[in-house]
Amino acid sequence: MTATKIYGHRGCMGTYPENTLLGFQKAIEQGVDGLELDVQLTKDGEVVVIHDEILDRTTDGNGYIKDFTLQEVKQFSAGVNFAHFPHYDETSWKAERVPTLQEVLELLAPYNTELNIELKTYLINYEGIEEKLDKDAEIAWLLDQRISHPLDYIQSLDLEALHISKHVALSDAYYLKDLFEIIRVWTVNEKDEIKQLLDLNHYSTVVKENHLSKKIIGFTLFIGIVILLVFYISGGREVEPMIADFPKIIAHRGANDRFNESTISAYKIAAEDGVDALEIDLRMTEDGSLVAMHDNSIDRTTNGTGEVSNFALKEIKDIPTIDVFSNQSTVEEIPTLKEILDTFTDTEHYYIETRLVNDALAMEELLVQQLNEYDLLAKDLVTIQSFSQESLERIHELAPEVPLTLLFGKGKFNLKEAKMADYPFIGMEASDVTLKNVNELHRHGKEVHVFFNDLESEKKEQERVKLLNVDGYFTNDIRFTKELLQVE
């Protein structure tokens, strides 16, 4: 057996700009066995080292790599977007550029450092990129799910190794029992996860404060996102950011692209699609009933007019929602919250938005009461969101255990307020989502959930914010979001 090897994921990306010569040099100085990097192809056929298919997240440029020549790519800084990192030096980091693979190889020439190159070809087919690499290079298969008979695949495809996600590795040790010599696990950052992986082959592992002792075991750990090797090798302080294991898909007013928004049918379609949560906007009628309705009036979604709070429930029920899909008119009544809960009970997670009623607190007590009638709070099946901190504070008084989301309207996002808010989730409009905002909120232990006001640009915006590692999508197109996130 060979010793466990540690690869710097995109260099030293927890503390230095990812996939840069500076980051690779720092990882080498910290004693990694190898470097992991990603390559894309420029318009003029040059192999450059960058993870994303676009420049937006990691440079001060924007657009697809494939649409730029190397000279054009070199105009953009690969360091300025990481100004929030503690070691940031404006002069030197601003000068960092997206490196070519050739430049990285020249950097590595004096060192006995292994190199793991990921071809980023699953979104864009870079014709001829394989020919740019050494034909004698070893090949590994990158996997985020189990495969049957892995040894057969290794033999038939002439693979040197399998690169499997930590979730696969940690979920089934028996599955790995014959594979320890030929697996590499990505991406591992937490102390406990590293210890579990080192213990999988039941060889003892010694972990001392600020030092990782490598013992006999036959797999490789890719370490990099957020804390990289800072705790284990350099003695830096440990960081515990909030990043969801996988982004949440939240059905915004149900499957509103296929049926009238905020109706039982729209929520049924969303539930059948397998979303993580049903998003429900609440309004209160004149006689104190909670109904699912986004707007304060019924004008947009029905043939009626007037504010919801001026109608009794019986009157609201006589004015159905109306919309048109596939050139056919669809009609369905406005549902109460209780009718939605009766329909789905405890089979779904509910992401509910509260609002003030005529500028006053009114719905919070009734909401908590109805949720408790279905035992949903005790089962952790509810998240409550609001633009009103007053409403969230009242909910917290009534149900301290329920997770809360503070919402910011388009153009009104306040990073300082969001970081200081005592809520685990922050909701913001897509146009306000930037790398700085996401990273800062993650560093303060908060998830970022994004909603999309502009339906025409939503798909493009979903693709953009995916690259910024947001944690939740209030989607108006469930099927597109599932495909984007590669969810079955």
From TrEMBL:
Keyword Transmembrane helix part of the UniProt annotation: yes
GO biological-process terms attached to the record: lipid metabolic process
Annotated GO MF terms: phosphoric diester hydrolase activity
Keyword Ribonucleoprotein (UniProt): no
PROSITE patterns: GP_PDE (PS51704)
Pfam families xref list: GDPD
Residues covered by the GP-PDE domain: 4-275, 271-485
Record-annotated membrane-spanning stretches: 216-234
Keyword annotations of the record: Membrane, Transmembrane, Transmembrane helix
Protein name: GP-PDE domain-containing protein
UniProt lineage: Eukaryota, Fungi, Fungi incertae sedis, Chytridiomycota, Chytridiomycota incertae sedis
